[in-house]
């Protein structure tokens, strides 16, 4: 055991035993201990506080420490906290599935449970590929994805992400995926897809996309009409379409799901993050009865062989049901509309800013690029400077290189939004003077 007289603080104890995600421990500062959260605020070891402007990696859509959600998880824990989901079921999972499907387009009729966004995507890809395999079609193995895509960090999900620092060490080990031109260039994107489909019309199985907003790729936003055309092309060539709504789901884009802006609908949708309001880890992948029925057979080898120990964990299901209770309240949608309006007003006021460029908005998601030269991208050196600047101001923002974004909990107040806006303006002014 470590000597407590040496490891006498959270920071030291953490540094001695923990390897953090997306962290280069050689050059990044020690992790900040957090002891509690309330609403939009995180509180540190000495009661210092941080405004959580990114919902702690986009998950806490209702804020931290929500008493209603905590109570529902507690009530479920007194009944059953975990049960194997192969051969057994339970009411929280059934209710959650019924309610989710009630908010999705009508052709979604089945829910498959997993544990996070990456695995929800893995399941979606396995569904699509095995759909054709179960029918004896072994040619359809290729997948189409968007340039600058990010779908997670497991091997299948990494394959679907555009080549980047995230997957560079494993690039030669990933399966074959074709990437089409970024959809904020609609004409080039559509022509690129047409060309790829024409070159191998019988080889593509699926088209996967983040609808309307490509998150980790830089909060890149594009039009619903472009995606409608891409889905229509995919369907015309017999591809299954997979919507990765892990970030965009549950009100983030101003509607329940980003697909609600579309005329053409996907065949499979992957959900996580806001699904449980940040209280528990869970992912789901939803599909049609037609796709589900393609796995029905007397041949057990046609089963979808995917699971994990905590599939449909009752506590996570209780958290998701509680989150849906809050999502279905009028108050939540009033807050979403209010945040959208505040973002728009501030964005309009900064349109000609010399540093804050390409200010863009989709629903409650606001993003911009810091323009201080020609360089851009995830590895931009401004990332660390910006992160530390806002932390010192008591605001948690996590830049994507030189891209800053706000994905705050829906309970954020206007005065709290103004703290973020003012800090952005002050940081930009310092950059203007420096550069």
From TrEMBL:
Alphabetical list of InterPro entries matching this protein: Aminotrans_3, Aminotrans_3_PPA_site, BioA, PyrdxlP-dep_Trfase, PyrdxlP-dep_Trfase_major, PyrdxlP-dep_Trfase_small
Residues that hold pyridoxal 5'-phosphate according to the record: 117-118, 244, 308-309
Pfam families noted in UniProt: Aminotran_3
Cofactor: pyridoxal 5'-phosphate
Modified residues (N6-(pyridoxal phosphate)lysine): 273
Claim: S-adenosyl-L-methionine is one of the keywords in the record: yes
Keyword line: Aminotransferase, Biotin biosynthesis, Cytoplasm, Pyridoxal phosphate, S-adenosyl-L-methionine, Transferase
Binding site for substrate: 57, 150, 273, 307, 398
E.C. designation(s): 2.6.1.62
Gene Ontology molecular function: any one: adenosylmethionine-8-amino-7-oxononanoate transaminase activity
Localisation per UniProt entry: Cytoplasm
PROSITE patterns: AA_TRANSFER_CLASS_3
Major subcellular location class: cytoplasm
Catalytic reactions of this protein: (8S)-8-amino-7-oxononanoate + S-adenosyl-L-methionine = S-adenosyl-4-methylsulfanyl-2-oxobutanoate + (7R,8S)-7,8-diammoniononanoate
Protein family: Belongs to the class-III pyridoxal-phosphate-dependent aminotransferase family. BioA subfamily.
Entry function: Catalyzes the transfer of the alpha-amino group from S-adenosyl-L-methionine (SAM) to 7-keto-8-aminopelargonic acid (KAPA) to form 7,8-diaminopelargonic acid (DAPA). It is the only aminotransferase known to utilize SAM as an amino donor.
Subunit text: Homodimer.
Protein name: Adenosylmethionine-8-amino-7-oxononanoate aminotransferase
């Amino acid at each position: 055991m470590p000597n407590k007289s040496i490891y006498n603080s959270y920071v030291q104890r953490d540094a001695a035993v923990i390897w953090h995600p997306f962290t280069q421990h050689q050059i990044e500062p020690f992790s900040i201990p957090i002891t509690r959260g309330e609403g939009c605020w995180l509180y540190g070891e000495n009661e210092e506080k941080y405004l959580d402007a990114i919902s702690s990696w986009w998950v806490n859509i209702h804020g931290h420490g929500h008493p209603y959600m905590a109570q529902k998880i507690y009530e479920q824990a007194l009944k059953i906290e975990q049960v194997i989901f192969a051969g057994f079921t339970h009411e929280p999972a059934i209710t959650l599935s019924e309610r989710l499907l009630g908010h999705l387009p009508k052709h979604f009729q089945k829910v498959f449970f997993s544990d996070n966004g990456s695995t929800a995507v893995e399941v979606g890809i396995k569904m699509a590929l095995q759909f054709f395999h179960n029918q004896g079609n072994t040619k359809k193995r290729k997948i189409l994805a968007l340039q600058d895509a990010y779908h997670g960090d497991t091997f299948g999900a990494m394959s679907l992400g555009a080549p980047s620092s995230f997957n560079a060490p494993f690039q030669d080990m990933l399966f074959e995926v074709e990437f089409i031109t970024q959809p904020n260039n609609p004409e080039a994107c559509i022509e690129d897809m047409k060309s790829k489909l024409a070159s191998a019309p019988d080889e593509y199985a699926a088209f996967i996309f983040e609808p309307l907003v490509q998150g980790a790729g830089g909060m890149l936003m594009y039009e619903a009409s472009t995606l409608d055309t891409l889905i229509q092309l995919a369907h015309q060539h017999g591809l299954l379409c997979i919507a990765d709504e892990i970030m965009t789901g549950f009100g983030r884009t101003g509607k329940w799901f980003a697909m609600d802006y579309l005329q053409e609908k996907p065949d499979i949708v992957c959900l996580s993050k806001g699904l449980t309001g940040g209280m528990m880890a869970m992912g789901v992948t939803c599909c049609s009865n037609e796709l589900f029925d393609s796995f029905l057979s007397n041949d057990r080898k046609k089963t979808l062989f995917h699971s994990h120990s905590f599939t449909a964990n009752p506590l996570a299901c209780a958290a998701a049901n509680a989150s849906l209770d809050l999502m279905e309240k009028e108050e939540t949608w009033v807050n979403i509309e209010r945040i959208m309006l505040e973002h728009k007003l501030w964005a309009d006021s900064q349109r000609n800013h010399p540093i804050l460029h390409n200010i863009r908005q989709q629903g409650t998601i606001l993003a911009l690029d810091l323009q201080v030269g020609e360089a851009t991208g995830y590895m931009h050196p401004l990332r660390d400077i910006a992160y530390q600047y806002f932390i010192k101001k008591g605001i948690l923002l996590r830049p994507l290189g030189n891209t800053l974004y706000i994905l705050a909990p829906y309970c954020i107040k206007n005065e709290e939004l103004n703290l973020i806006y003012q800090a952005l303006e002050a940081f930009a002014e310092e950059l203007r003077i420096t550069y």
